[in-house]
Amino acid sequence: MRPSFPMRSGGGGEIGKYGKYLGEWGNLGSQTQKGIASFALSSNRQRPLAGTLHAAIFNVFRRFSHQVLYIAPPMIIGYFTMQWAIERNEYLNSKAGIKEFGTDE
Fold this sequence. Notes:
By secondary structure, this protein is mainly α.
C-alpha cells in the first residue's frame, strides 16, 4: 500500500517569508501527510440505540433486585412507625386520651 496524498484546496498562491503557503483556506502550508488515511464508521454510530429497550428492561430489573433489600426494610419500618405515631397522636388528642393521660390545669 502506498501512502495517501494530502488533500489541499486552493490553487497556487504566494509563498510566505519562510517558504510556507499563506493563502486560501485549507492550504496553510502544514507538513505533508504520512501513512494511510482510512475512514470507517464506528459500530456505535451505525446503530446508536441497538438493544437499548431490551437492555433497559433487564438492567432495571437487575438493579432493582440488588437494591430492594437496602430500600424496602427501612421504608416498611418507617411506614409502620408513622402509622403508629398518627394513631397514637389521634388517641392522645381524643376525649378518651385526654381523660386517661391529660393533666389538670
